[in-house]
Amino acid sequence: MNEKLFSILRYHTIDRILNEKGRANTKDLLVAVAELNLDFELNEQMIENDIKDMKSDPVLGYFAPIAYNKSENLYSYSDTNYSIQKHGLNKFEKEALLMIMHYFDYIKEHKNMHGLRGMIQKLVDTLRIRHNTDDFDSPEFVDSELSPDFGGSKFLGPLMEAIKTRRVVRLYYHPFYEDKPYFTIIHPYLIKEFKGRWYLIGLNDTKREIRTYGLDRIWELEETADTYIPKTFKASDYFKNTVGIISPLGNPPEIQIEVSKHQAQYLITQPLHGSQYIESENEEYVIFSYKVHPTYEFKALILAMGKDVRVLKPESFKKTLLHELNEAILAYGRRA
User: Which domain does 267 fall in, by range?
Assistant: First the structure.
């Protein structure tokens, strides 16, 4: 890793610890930087030099109000509202982002990046847009979609480690449909990202069923000494026949939909599912076929097309959508 980039990571780590803990000694800050797991030699003198640079280096421009309590050997921000994150990017940070952009643009074609290319390309595009503005702020001539922070990212590392080492975890979990959180034992198998949220797929130890858990709904996580039960499916195949975060058991049905010609163009360029193919078409409609489970997410995609779509089969899925549409009409009537 470039030394300049490593120094920026140290500055931001020190800033994060001082904001999270309020006070920290040199050893605390050294441990936090070491947790980045980067192959660089570290020592307390380096951290002290970093603090000095954050306080007074005019090139960095942080001028961080870091105070030192000599009797307690603790550093803290004299202004508790301060953070270097509130500053615009300095010259070194812009250069680091440019280097990252070029690296990702190159590495996205690597065989190990399969499945991540779209995500990496979005990152590269965003960095390129920012780089072509004077101050890396969002330009007025480009309005990119914002991804809200749903939380739970801090559990990614521990869960990935538990999956790799085959360790059982105990979650303190609060689903949206429950009034209070509860403890549950999970054998973790897979991490999935969907619409900006991270999810854990694993075996619920009590119910002996595969369940899905949103990382943003986890309050606490710890490993246990329970015996790990390995998964009996291939992770790459688990979501093959579904849209969203739930994968029902069994083979998926064949679903056919009739879509108006103009709406069909969107589906042709951005399929609802990987199994999508065109059965037939005429001047007015295109008939698409899918081998997919009719999950909530897939149903929502169909309903979102409104009058431009009609389900042809299976009959059970058609009746389900008709029921939901009738319930929606009744709901509007009651609230008129």
Answer: 254-334
